Amino acid sequence: MDDNGTQANVPETQDDIFQKCLKKVEEWRSAGIEPYGSRYDNVDYIADVRGAYKGDASEVIKKRIAGRVMAFRVMGKSIFADIKDSTGRLQIYVNKNTLGDNFDHFSRIDIGDIVGADGELFITKTGELTLKVHDFKMLSKAMKTLPEKWHGLTDVEMRYRQRYVDLIVNDDARDVLRKRALVVREVRKHLEEQGYLEVETPMIQPLAGGAAARPFKTFYEALNCSMYMRIAPELYLKRLLVGGFEKVFELNRNFRNEGLSRRHNPEFTMLEIYQAYGDCRTMMALVEGLITSVANKINGSMQIKKSDGTIIDLTPPWTIATYSDLVKSKGGPDWFDVDTQERRKRAEKMGLRLDPKAADFEVTNEVYEKLIEPTLINPTFVTRLPADLIPLAKRCDDNPNYVDVFELEINGQEIAPGYSELNDPVEQRKRFMKQLEGNSASGDYELCEGKVDEDFLNALEYGMPPAGGMGVGIDRLAMLLTGADSIRDVILFPHMRPKSNK
């Protein structure tokens, strides 16, 4: 009650709205109308309906549409409503003289309901294309109201937690996710045109190999053994090279039991490609052609404008720079000549917080990842990385301390690593053992539980051809080509922290 003793305006709760909707459902059913309709054939997409009208008022064009009610305006014996489907939005006009008793049933519709409508097209006095409805069908009654200004929500995470609502009211979000699907389609098409065969390899593996990452562990009851969700498909794809498949790719889901951030999701999509008789330069040419082709087809341009106004220019040829030259540009020209203690001292002076257990090469890599990588906005191939970082690549012929690889950096993040693949089984075993020793020394022994993939080494002993290999982060590529600021914007249902653990 207010000061005058009258009932104050109290906002309706979702439960109040739900009860009102239940009443409407009962009223419709009493009138013989099922509010959760069935099959509705021969529906025209709204975009096609708009394209069908050529402006000839004398021509009668009948159409059937279906979609969600996004606006509803009652004007006496007439109702105007906006219907939205996956291709667009169209105004409909409902008149009591045309619908008769069904007009009262239609008047019970709420914003958010899904309806079908038959009618003919005309242009209103305000010049808007409209469907004059002769018949309608209820297809689904919404029991909750849509947010009026979804962009204005203070809890932006709700957009990701309730993606289905986000997609209803946020055209930009839906366009980004539709564009992501087009990116995947164009990637697949480009590779198939280049003669690559798409394959599928196991997602549940007895060993988590092919990358340095913490896996998700599970248990296989039928086999009575521990298994892992894959962190990379690399070792299985290389087995296919051994078996005679010379150009293969997989658009795969990987799982890494690590953190959440604007650029990381524990479940993500990766493209991995391998080509027999190639090397990392084969992959450099391939990825440059792939990304520029997809960008041109999706955006019609080689330039991408970021939200802060920065322009990313994908026009080839792309820059090539060695890892050591980039590090020396930040840490000093004598960075690799000074001792470990001096390198740590310089890194800390540059503001880096180093793990006391970090190996010397890890100190250098911290400088690269934290201070250099974020500055590489236009496409840059960073080549000749330290051998300690990458156990699955060939060493450079002129210097065994480096491996013949590249990391493609765009917009300050790695989009694709590519290798000249190691195919020497003896050397590969040495690298695996050294990696295990490093994990044990750093306390990360449980990453692979002290195991080497003996079956993979067995495959290499049958002979794997020299090859180029590459991985492309599809989520990050989608971020790049859509201009999205967060990986959550290009994943339909990103992982979220439980609300109780915020």
Number of domains: 2
CATH superfamily of the largest domain: Bira Bifunctional Protein, Domain 2
Q: CATH top level of the largest domain?
A: Alpha Beta
Structural class: alpha+beta
The best one-word shape is: elongated
Enumerate the spans where pLDDT stays under 50 for 5 or more consecutive residues.
150-154
- Helical residue percent? 25-40%
Number of strands: 19
Mean model confidence by pLDDT: 91
Tell me what the CATH architecture of the largest domain is: 2-Layer Sandwich
CATH topology of the largest domain: BirA Bifunctional Protein, domain 2
Amount of beta strand: 25-35%
Query: How far do the termini sit from each other?
Result: 37 Å
Largest sheet, described in full?
9 strands, mixed
The number of helical runs is 15
State the assembly state of the protein chains. single chain
Radius of gyration: 29 Å
What does this protein look like?
With 502 residues, the protein is α+β, with helices and mostly antiparallel strands. The chain folds into two domains: 14-140, Beta Barrel (OB fold (Dihydrolipoamide Acetyltransferase, E2P)); 167-318 and 378-501, Bira Bifunctional Protein, Domain 2 (BirA Bifunctional Protein, domain 2, 2-Layer Sandwich). The chain is built from 15 helices and 19 strands. Strands 6, 10, 11, 14, 15, 16, 17, 18 and 19 form a nine-stranded mixed sheet that branches. Strands 1-2-3-5-4 form a five-stranded mixed barrel. A hairpin with a 2-residue loop joins strand 16 (395-396) and strand 17 (399-410). Helix 7 packs across helix 9 (280-299) and helix 13 (425-441) packs antiparallel against helix 14 (454-461). The longest helix has 23 residues, at 171-193. The chain is elongated, with a radius of gyration of 29 Å. It starts with 13 loop residues before the first helix and ends in a 20-residue tail after the last helix.
